[in-house]
Amino acid sequence: MELVNKVIGSELALFEKKFSDSVKSSNPLLDRIMKFIIKRKGKQMRPMFVFLSAKIAKDINDVSYRAASLIELLHTATLVHDDVVDNAMMRRNFFSINALWKNKIAVLVGDYLLSKGLLLSIENGDVRILQITSRAVKEMSEGELLQMEKARKLDIDESVYFDIIRAKTASLLSAACSAGAWSATSDETVTEHFRLFGEKVGIAFQIKDDLFDYGEANIGKPTGIDIKEKKMTLPLIYTLQNADKETKRKIIYIVKNNSTDRAKVNEVIKLVQQSGGITYSQNIMMQYKDEAMKLLHSYPDSSARQAMEELVNYVIDRKY
């Protein structure tokens, strides 16, 4: 993402320092864990969306940095808690917090990150930014619970699927964009415009993630993991909606009863590929991307807008 780094590279470098300072603790164990988290942080995609949204809407300022820190603190907290819930031992090819320090400490670390984010906003009077991000956390929790509920019954259709991913994944990305816009403008109309833009990108992002489960590329995790966890994603939903009764019965039986059998899972993957579920999902993903780009193009052409386009394309074209 050459253009992104050119346009907001200096802001991201300063953000790194501000974020590192924001998680420091006088508790030796907590400080050690924070340093571990910072060293193994991801691409900081959400702060990129904050800064680019602010720059397109008007310009980056101190509130933008705090908004980016809050988004990243909340995102990191949810990842730490997710690993506990999922009993995941690895995160980005490193041991997870719960694998190294056990579940009790991991939960408390997640709570600490959340509290640091809340304090950062409250102490600086960033009430609107806190409102935007708190709503996202609420929606993420609701989305996860809805997905867990539906996984037990396997009675999910497309409308419910989109309700889940809009809440579970798109909400935080839309919060990043709307918080960035608000930090620069304090304008509700502009903020809502960027919220909708971020939501559409977030939905496309999640569909892309779901498609990885049915591919053959090495993406750092085995394919078929969603099937094993009985997650009804768009490629599978499409296949079930269009399969004959016998095939549909077979797929549902495997997902319910043989989801840990690698050969059976591969059978479902093959049926999804043959049904056109992959192509259908790719088309829907591109539709959401195009809608997001249309919203973005309502703003004048600029290096910041071009960088945002590059970032959106990266989200859709990424290989893992």
Notes on the protein architecture:
This protein has 320 residues and is mainly α. It contains 14 helices and 2 strands. The chain has a two-stranded antiparallel ribbon with strand order 1-2. Helix 4 runs parallel beside helix 6, helix 4 runs antiparallel to helix 7 and helix 7 packs across helix 8.
Spatial arrangement of strands, main beta sheet = 1-2
Shape: globular
Corresponding CATH architecture: Orthogonal Bundle
Low-confidence stretches: 217-222
Tell me the span between the first and last alpha carbons: 15 Å
- How much of the residues is beta strand, in percent? under 5%
Instruction: Please give the domain count.
Output: 1
SSE series: HHHHEEHHHHHHHHHH
Q: Can you summarize the main beta sheet?
A: 2 strands, antiparallel
Helix content: over 70%
Number of strands: 2
- CATH topology name, in short, is Farnesyl Diphosphate Synthase
User: How many individual helices?
Assistant: 14
**In the CATH hierarchy, what is the class?**
Mainly Alpha
Briefly note the structural class of the backbone.
Answer: mainly alpha
Which radius of gyration do the C-alpha atoms yield?
20 Å
Quote the average pLDDT.
90
**CATH homology superfamily name:** Farnesyl Diphosphate Synthase
